[in-house]
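Q: Here's a chain of 209 amino acids. Please give me its 3D structure as tokens.
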Amino acid sequence: MFIKRHLLKFFYKYEIHKTAHIGLSWIYPKKLTMGPNSRIGHFNTAVHLDEIILGERVSIGRGNWITGFATGTASKHFKHQPERKSILSIGDHSAITKNHHIDCTSPIIIGKFVTIAGYQSQFLSHSINVYDNRQDSKQIVIGDYCFVGTNVVMLGGAVLPGYSVLGAKSLLNKAYTEEWKLYGGNPAKPILDIDKNAKYFSRDTGFVV
């Protein structure tokens, strides 16, 4: 990693902290920032993005497929969204486990102390707008101290508020604002309140043992 870090910084001008690590993965956005002790595991792919930003002690497991639609191309797709950026931003102490699909055509913003748990979740920021007959995209936001269960789907425009849980196999397709809630179902909606004494939501380290 010592040699790889210096080559990536020299040729691609990436900002990779000396304690950050990239495993056997294909990670080539236009711009990459990795904070202290951030890690990307093996067999991940991250391509066609404008930028990836990983905060301190962020962990991306293995086998994740992270894609986007970078700006500055001659493509007609998304020309009606001139301010759009293809970005993945993950806050300090957050973790993505393995075998997830993360489509960052529009920004996907993940807060601090978040866990994207389990397997095979999909975060899809773009789709076809059948009314206007064109590709369209909207950002996805996950607030601080969230827990996202296995095999969920989040669509463009979805917001999971901070201090919330998204239950396994749920579909979140709208922006919610109420914190301290369990959201679940298809489509997801608030199900019950979360006790504010739950220890997950007051952690000072992202790794849960």
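Q: Can you summarize the key feature?
A: The longest helix spans residues 2-12.
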